[in-house]
Design a protein that fits this description.
The chain is α+β, with helices and mostly antiparallel strands and 325 residues long. The chain has 4 domains: 66 residues, Arc Repressor Mutant, subunit A (Orthogonal Bundle), CATH 1.10.10; 50 residues; 87 residues, Roll (SH3 type barrels); 80 residues, Alpha-Beta Plaits. It contains 11 helices and 11 strands. The longest helix has 22 residues. It is globular.
């Protein structure tokens, strides 16, 4: 049994190695060893095994290994656990996506099921019978399909026109934007785009887009723009106010996932955890702090403390009783 597991593990690594080389230009043995967490000697043995089964490898002294262009890998083979992970992932996508993306997730799941052996399909069916994802989730997925349109526009670098509802002013605006990326924040999607109206990179909540269409005109991203780096820099933007909140240790793990920013500082002390970050939406933070009641306390700024107090008093007012009650 142990020997069978080793052989299966190696077979999976060989397939993963072939997929890696197929998807990359070139890679040295050292890079491959680090990526797969094995020794260079193991990588050399695996490369030799791929050559023996007919995979056309090429090698450059300076560039490393690659698979000859035009070679097609054998059909995808998944283990029961891998298939379960992929199909369960499509179920999670369907919980937080728009109608078009839900349909695409369903089509992907069906395509994967058709290539699975009967034994693995039966395994997946039994797993589905014993798994429930957010059974009481009552929110309906948006029907507009904007995620799919925007993802295509990002990939093709096409300008989009949209009608956007500005909640702070309660008005609709029309604008053209260069879509640079999509970001999921806890419970909603945001579009990162260069706004031609404001002439700067801004964020737009997909839920506030009223209408949208992809134009034929192409755009060039700002020089040096990288989505992850942009988000990192925005999180540390000095324009955002310095926020300091103290959470009870018992709720901190849950609260941390709700903080919409990168932490500048974090320290534990006597059953509590204090965090420092920068943010500019005080209304959101007030709601966040109030969600944890006595287990969260704003240390700074003072005006956020006052906002939380005012909000708490409004909530308390809803439960005031008559003297005779």
């Amino acid at each position: 049994m142990i020997q069978e597991r080793r052989l299966l593990k190696r077979a999976e690594r060989l397939f993963a190695l072939a997929m890696y080389l197929k998807g990359s230009r070139t890679a040295t043995a050292a890079v491959l060893a680090e990526h797969f967490g094995v020794s260079e000697r193991t990588i050399y043995r695996d490369l030799q095994a791929l050559s023996k089964i007919g995979v056309p490898l090429i090698h450059g002294d300076k560039t490393g290994y690659a698979i000859l262009k035009g070679y097609r890998l054998p059909p995808l083979i998944l283990t029961a656990h891998q298939a379960a992970a992929v199909l369960m992932g499509t179920e999670f996508i369907k919980l937080r996506s728009d109608k078009a993306m839900i349909q695409e997730a369903e089509e992907v799941a069906e395509k994967i099921r058709t290539i699975l052996p009967q034994s693995i399909r039966e395994y997946i069916d039994k797993l589905n019978e014993g798994t429930a994802l957010d059974p009481y989730w009552l929110h309906k997925a948006p029907v507009h399909g904007y995620w799919s349109i925007l993802s295509e526009a990002i990939a093709k670098r096409r300008v989009v026109w949209m009608e956007y509802f500005v909640r702070s002013r309660k008005e609709r605006t029309e604008r053209q934007v260069d879509p640079l990326g999509l970001v999921f924040y806890t419970d909603h999607w945001n579009l990162i785009a260069y706004d031609h109206l404001r002439r700067e990179i801004r964020q737009f909540a997909l839920a506030h887009i009223q209408d949208l269409s992809m134009l034929s005109r192409r755009f060039t991203p700002p020089e040096g723009f990288e989505l992850k780096q942009y988000l990192k820099e925005r999180s540390a933007d000095p324009a955002g106010e310095r926020i300091e909140i103290c959470f009870a240790a018992s709720v901190y793990d849950e609260a941390r996932s709700s903080i919409p920013a990168m932490l500048e500082q974090e320290w534990a002390d006597d059953g509590s955890v204090t965090v420092v970050f920068r943010f500019d939406n005080m209304a959101y933070l007030a709601q966040l702090v109030l969600r944890y009641g006595l287990h969260a306390r704003v240390v700074a700024p003072v005006h956020l403390r006052k906002r939380v107090r005012a909000l708490a008093l409004r909530v308390a007012a809803q439960y005031e009783t008559d003297e005779g009650e």
